[in-house]
Write a structure and sequence with these properties.
Blueprint (H helix, E strand, L loop, with lengths): L1 H16 L30 E8 L6 E2 L12 E8 L5 H5 L3 H10 L3 E9 L5
Antiparallel strand pairs: 1-2, 1-3, 3-4
């Protein structure tokens, strides 16, 4: 009986000593900085639609206009351009994640990665 309790006791001690919860919490001596982006000259290119798409934690397509946008801090997003004559938003929204990746990687209608945006910022 004593031998069977020893491993259980050791396991309980290990579990109580090792931290089991992690959180994305701001340290007391730090401040949160809200970031947002805005591309102000999109109207200079009336024949194009600008799309925001990225990874990880961001599996949607955003059609950009001149308003501000933001995204999760650990994501990396890219801005793509598509000629309006070749753009069908409804078709694009029906694609699954793999099909979207293929579309942005290999479609001849897409001007690839005009800008890359990362959410992590060090001050």
């Amino acid at each position: 009986m004593k031998r069977s309790l020893l491993p259980v006791c050791l396991m309980l001690i290990c579990l109580s000593v090792v931290p089991t919860v992690y959180a994305d919490v701001i340290d007391p001596d730090e401040k949160e900085v809200q970031t947002s982006y805005q591309i102000i000259n999109l109207d200079s290119y009336p024949d194009y639609v600008f799309l925001l798409y990225g990874y990880p934690f961001y599996y949607d397509i955003m059609v950009l206009n001149s308003s501000q946008f933001s995204f999760y801090k650990f994501s990396t997003l890219s801005v793509y351009a598509v000629e309006k004559s070749n753009f069908n938003e409804d078709e694009l929204r029906q694609l699954n994640e793999t099909q979207l990746q293929d579309y942005f990687a290999s479609s001849t209608n897409v001007i690839r990665q005009i800008w890359n945006l990362r959410g992590v910022m060090v001050l």
